[in-house]
Write a structure and sequence with these properties.
The protein has 10 helices and 19 strands. It is an alpha+beta fold. A 7-stranded antiparallel β-sheet has the order 2-11-10-5-4-3-6. Strand 3 and strand 4 form a beta hairpin. The structure holds FE2/S2 (inorganic) cluster (FES) and fe (ii) ion.
Length: about 375
């Protein structure tokens, strides 16, 4: 993030904290409950958002060396990402081209030059090409050049790996080409915090009874912090104090922390936003990242059905060994984060269970929650 922008956000934070106000410059709105319950709507979201947009599936730190690989299944599409011998990171459908068995079991690995199917032994190079067929005389007409793994469009930017979860085509290539337009300025801003070489720790996956958008909603407003999170994350922030920025289709929330009072005007040129505030980025459609206290908490939510989602979290930390004090600091941070997230997920599940009671035709969204209204407008526009 440009230094001028950091200074501007910190000055705005100081003004908000000083006045006890928050950013209410955007309009209130309402979200019809059928957005969370309608199966037809859900199918459109899955098809349009989770099959034709670049979706975050992992991090460069997982696949730095040739032969490093990981699988990803949460979109509902079995994806294999592998760093090929030519150094290019590629994504494929994790599906054998013989009779369609899953090629690689769930997980990650390294130094893999070949992937061999466990059913009949068809074997593929780490560039996806079919290189070995046992008993080739059984397939007299086989065109091997047409039987490589099915490629998916992939973009690797600032340490993040995005894949369009459908077979590569001019359309998906266009989606990846558009990633620099779609995500570029925001990713560049995120990348400028120097987190591109951070490594994963404490990954976790949960299946929860909530519509995927509910958790995106919960992470784009701080109105609930002093109530739901009063004993957890809310204790570390000013009540209802945030700067909301909608950069369609993405969003950013800046939350000043107590260290805002340590800012000295004479040091203004060196002010660093993350020393005095937490920042949440919401990457459309399904990922939020919290930059706070030197760490990054990533959360992606994937739709299973109208009322069920897969929630994947992982912490990104600077590479290298840590001393006991840092390890303790990290553990405290994780405990607070997990407690906070457990509160969010529990209330989202309550909301989902209440959607069909008839109590609300629409959910009310206040001016302090305006990013939710903007998020749903974007979904509406894209899904049609
Ligand atoms: S299904 Fe993979 S080798 Fe037969
Ligand atoms: Fe929350």
């Amino acid at each position: 993030m440009q230094q001028q922008e950091q200074i501007r956000l910190l000055e705005q934070s100081l003004a908000l904290v000083g006045s006890g106000q928050t950013d209410l410059s955007h309009p209130a709105g309402a979200i019809p409950v059928d957005r969370y319950t309608d199966p037809l709507r859900f199918a459109r979201e899955q098809q349009v958002l989770f099959r034709s947009l670049p979706i975050l599936v992992g991090f460069s730190s997982q696949v730095r060396a040739v032969g490093d690989w990981f699988t990803h299944d949460a979109t509902g599409v079995p994806i294999l990402c592998v760093r090929s011998d030519d150094g290019v990171l590629r994504a494929f459908l994790n599906v054998c081209r013989h009779r369609g068995a899953r090629l690689v079991a769930d997980g990650e690995g390294s130094k893999q030059t070949m992937f061999s199917c466990g059913f009949h032994g068809w074997t593929y190079g780490n560039d996806g090409s079919l290189c070995k067929v046992p008993m080739p005389e059984s397939f007299p007409d086989l065109d091997r050049s047409n039987c490589g793994l099915v490629a998916l469009s992939l973009a690797e930017r600032h340490g993040f790996v995005f894949v369009v979860p459908q077979p590569k085509s001019p359309t998906t290539e266009h989606a990846v080409a558009a990633i620099d337009q779609f995500l570029g300025p925001l990713l560049a801003e995120i990348g400028s915090f120097g987190i591109g070489n951070y490594v994963m720790t404490n990954p976790a996956t949960q299946t929860r009874k909530l519509n995927w958008k509910l958790h995106m909603d919960a992470t784009q407003e701080v109105y609930h912090l002093p109530v739901l999170h009063k004993a957890t994350a809310g204790a570390g922030y000013f009540q209802n104090c945030s700067i909301l920025t909608h950069r369609a289709p993405h969003a950013r929330v800046v939350m000043p922390g107590p260290k805002i009072h340590e800012l000295r005007p004479e040091d203004r040129a060196n002010w660093r936003l993350l020393d005095h505030a937490a920042v949440v980025y919401a990457l459309f459609p399904n990922t939020t990242m919290l930059l706070y206290m030197g760490y990054v908490q990533m959360l992606s939510v994937f739709p299973v059905d109208t009322d069920t989602s897969i929630v994947r979290t992982v912490m990104l930390v600077p590479p290298g060994q840590v001393d006991a004090a840092e390890a303790h600091h990290r553990q405290c941070h994780l405990v607070t984060y997990w407690s906070t997230m457990a509160e969010d997920l529990a209330v989202c599940e309550q909301m989902q269970a209440n959607m069909r009671t008839g109590a609300n035709a629409a959910l009310r969204v206040g001016r302090a929650e305006s990013l939710l209204a903007a998020f749903h407008r974007t979904v509406d526009e894209m899904v049609g």
